[in-house]
Design goal:
The complex is a heterodimer of chains A (466) and B (287). Chain A has helices spanning 3-55, 59-72, 106-109, 150-195, 217-278, 283-310, 322-338, 351-355, 359-377, 407-414, 427-436; strands at residues 78-85, 90-93, 126-135, 138-148, 342-347, 382-389, 393-400, 440-446, 449-457. By secondary structure, chain A is an alpha+beta fold. In chain A, the strands form two sheets. Chain A has a five-stranded mixed sheet, with helices on one face. Chain A has a four-stranded antiparallel sheet with strand order 2-1-4-3. In chain A, helix 5 crosses helix 7. With 287 residues, chain B is of the alpha/beta class. Chain B folds into two domains: 7-110 and 222-279, Periplasmic binding protein-like II (D-Maltodextrin-Binding Protein, domain 2); 116-217, 3-Layer(aba) Sandwich (D-Maltodextrin-Binding Protein, domain 2). Chain B has a six-stranded mixed sheet, sandwiched between helices. The chains are: A alpha+beta (466), B alpha/beta (287).
């Protein structure tokens, strides 16, 4: 926010420089104009005064005229006046030692300009002007004048220095004042930016004390912002509730399979009980039935335990083991069996790599993907589950022979937009859990199979809360 | 001389020592016209005013000083009669000896004689005229004895001409200007009236300090005051002569003489100018 006042101050400095340049160049132009007028008057006067003497080649008279002119124009800048003859030789000069009689005139005219072209180059202390002396349209000589312009250069330097000082002072005052005013004007925006979470936090409502009183645009803006923050928070809350519900969706999906899984052995178990009752005198039959009962009850116990474990929140920090995948298979197998699907189950991930990941989220990720795969594959289809690790990552790969991910499912798993209910069981939860573990999800369609691969980086210390 | 006599005319006549006939001394209504040339410090207005005041009081009538740029103009005006008398150089006097009569000759350093100086810039190492070959030479006036004739006749004796001996010659029409030309570096050598140069060492030493004397000529007749020969005996000329010769006898006259840096005036004789005549002949013989 400090940038805007700085930019304003910079613009003021630029403007100051530009204005100073304009003033200085105007001063230079004015000086040039005055100098041109002065030089023209001097040269014209000299031409008139020396013309007869030039015609007569009267060295002394030309000198005397130039000498008197130079003396009379003391303070009129001319430091050297030179008159040349038609042959380009010095006829006489106000200072004969600098311009001896008979010397080439070129050394005094070569860097001289006609009066109308007179300029004041910066840094020049002396300038030279030249004019022809004409008699009946014939050039009979030249007059060159060297003019002292040191005072003009000094004047320009002084003006420049004053302008610099004045501009610096004015710019400083304006910049400080401007920065103060802008700062005041922009302070509500800074407040707004701060509360919008400029440092990466979540947007926070602006307390009433910081909202300017009245119905100004800024206060309306802040009230609107606060209303939006409320809406965003409400939406976040709704999404959190939806995500929590998604955890139980998978359980719901499993419930009928689990009911079958429990119900199916019950008939056999009841038969075993009947056998024991009826053939209590036949030890082999009793033993066989007891074994059958034992296996059936153990299976039921395992199913119940796996079901309970699935959503136990106190298991959040429990490390992942191969047994978690066995539990998953136990829960998922009836679902596959119900649709007469072909299940491939391959666990090759190293136990050591698995331990670095928390059990609960990984189990939830795998189960949700498997349930979606089973639904997609349809009756008689195929579902594959593979895990692998390489010391860097653990990869869970779920593939099915279904028709592929529908767009809404893809949106839920890969995009950040609001998730509408439906369109894949818990896929948004898979996305959130994987992201929470620092992982990535890749989608591939390969040889009629849809493959979703979740790559989770192995973490050696701590376990992230999800 | 047809004008009526004035009271002042009578008074001035009585004051005349040389016995100019009373009556028509300065009877004319027009002022006495005295031509001046730069044979003295003619640029000094204080000097001119003093000199003029003295002459007017002594001659009891108005005296007008007439100055022209060249000796030739003054000589011409004297010849045609618009000037009553003129302070010219010995050279024009000798040139027109048959037309001019001496009125008075200034006395400088106790004699009516002076010298021409050949001068050069202060740092010049020249020992004589021949060392000045190829220099830019400043003459005073082509009709000046000290400012032209002396050097030109010396060159004639060497079978040289000024315009070829010197790189360039310029005429400054003033002895003071010759000194100035060398002092400022415009010219490298010059021919100047020795009396003027010496007078300048008193009043403008900063000019003469920039020059040095290379050579002095022999003594020659001092630039005289002359008149047309047919007017030599007129009362006004007699009055002028008396005024000049009597200058040391009055306070105002002495004052003017001091400013002129002269001792006085003497009637003089044409023999004083024989040296100049000889030089003129030498120059003319060279052709």
């Amino acid at each position: 926010m400090a940038r805007v006042p700085l930019i304003a101050a910079g613009l003021m400095i630029l403007f100051g420089i530009f204005a100073s340049q304009q003033v200085l160049s105007a001063l230079t132009r004015l000086q040039e104009q005055k100098l041109r007028e002065l030089a023209q008057v001097q040269l014209d006067g000299l031409e008139v005064a020396t013309l007869p003497s030039i015609l007569h080649q009267d060295v002394w008279e030309v000198y005397d005229t130039l000498d008197r002119a130079a003396r009379a124009s003391k303070g009129m800048r001319a430091t050297l006046l030179v008159v040349g003859d038609a042959q380009g030789k010095v006829l006489a000069a106000s200072d004969p030692r600098r311009a001896p009689v008979g010397e080439p005139m070129a050394q005094f005219t070569s860097n001289a300009t006609p009066v109308k072209d007179l300029r004041l180059p910066s840094g020049a202390d002396f300038i030279r002007v030249v004019a022809p002396v004409k008699y009946h349209d014939e050039t009979i000589g030249t007059i060159a004048a060297e003019m002292d312009v040191r005072d003009l250069a000094r004047e320009r330097r002084q003006a420049g220095a004053y302008l610099l000082l004045a501009n610096a002072a004015a710019t400083l005052v304006l910049a400080v004042g401007g920065a103060f005013l802008m700062g005041r004007t922009l302070r509500p925006l800074a407040t707004l930016a701060h509360h919008m979470g400029e440092s990466g936090g979540t947007p926070q409502p602006i307390p009433d004390g910081l909202i300017p009183p009245g119905k100004t645009e800024v206060s309306r803006l802040m009230h609107n912002y606060n209303a939006m923050v409320g809406a965003v928070q409400a939406r976040g809350e709704a999404e959190r509730r939806l995500a929590a519900r998604e955890r139980f969706v998978s359980l719901g999906r499993l419930s009928s399979s689990l009911a079958h899984e429990i119900n199916n052995p019950l008939g056999g178990l009841l038969n075993a009980v009947d056998t024991i009752q009826r053939f209590s005198d036949r030890p082999e039959a009793v033993r066989e039935s007891a074994d059958l009962l034992d296996r059936g009850l153990r299976h039921l116990r395992d199913v119940a335990r796996a079901t309970l474990d699935l959503h136990r929140t106190d298991m959040a920090d429990t490390p992942l083991t191969a047994r978690d995948f066995d539990d998953l298979r136990l829960l998922f197998a009836p679902e596959v069996a119900r649709f007469s699907q072909n299940l491939t189950w391959q666990i090759t991930a190293a136990e050591g790599d698995l331990e670095s990941l928390p059990a609960a989220p990984v189990r939830q990720i795998a189960l949700n993907l498997l349930l979606n795969a089973a639904a997609a594959a349809g009756p008689g289809g195929g579902v594959q589950f593979r895990t692998a690790s390489d010391g860097q990552d653990v990869r869970l790969s779920v593939s099915d022979t279904g028709p592929g991910l529908p767009p809404e499912a893809r949106a839920r798993i890969f995009e950040d937009g609001p998730a509408e209910p439906g369109g894949g069981v818990g896929l948004r939860l898979v996305r959130d859990l994987a992201r929470g573990l620092g992982g990535m999800i890749a989608h591939d369609r390969n040889g009629g199979e849809t493959v979703l691969t979740v790559t989770l980086p192995i973490r050696r210390e701590g376990v992230m809360e999800c | 001389m047809t004008q009526t006599l004035t009271r002042r005319g009578f008074l001035s006549a009585t004051a005349t020592v040389l016995g100019a006939s009373a009556g028509a001394v300065l009877a004319e209504a027009r002022p006495f016209a005295l031509g001046l040339t730069p044979v003295f410090l003619s640029n000094d207005t204080d000097l001119l005013r003093n000199f003029q005041n003295y002459l007017q009081s002594s001659m009891q009538g108005p005296v007008e000083f007439v100055q022209r740029r060249t000796y030739e103009e003054i000589t011409g005006m004297l010849l045609e009669g618009s000037l009553d008398a003129a302070w010219v150089c010995g050279y024009p006097y000798v040139q027109h000896e048959d037309a001019f009569a001496l009125v008075a000759v200034p006395v400088w350093q106790y004699q009516p004689l002076y010298r021409s100086y050949l001068i050069a810039a202060k740092d010049s190492g020249a020992q004589g005229l021949t060392d000045l070959r190829g220099t830019l030479h400043a003459f005073s006036d082509p009709n000046s004895n000290s400012g032209f004739l002396v050097t030109a006749s010396d060159l004639a004796a060497l079978d040289e001409r000024p315009e070829s001996f010197f790189r360039r010659t310029i005429f400054t029409y003033g002895h003071r200007n010759v000194v100035r030309a060398i002092a400022v570096g415009l010219a490298e050598s010059g021919s100047v009236d020795g009396y003027v140069w010496e007078a300048l060492t008193v009043v403008e030493p900063e000019l003469t300090d920039q020059t040095r004397i290379v050579q002095r000529s022999e003594l020659l007749g001092f630039p005289p005051v002359v008149c047309r020969i047919d007017r030599a005996e007129t009362p006004s000329i007699r009055a002028l002569q008396a005024a000049l010769v009597n200058m040391p006898s009055t306070a105002t006259g002495m004052n003017a003489l001091t400013l002129l840096q002269l001792d006085g005036f003497t009637p003089g004789s044409s023999a004083l100018f024989d040296g100049i005549a000889a030089r003129m002949r030498r120059l003319n013989a060279r052709g």
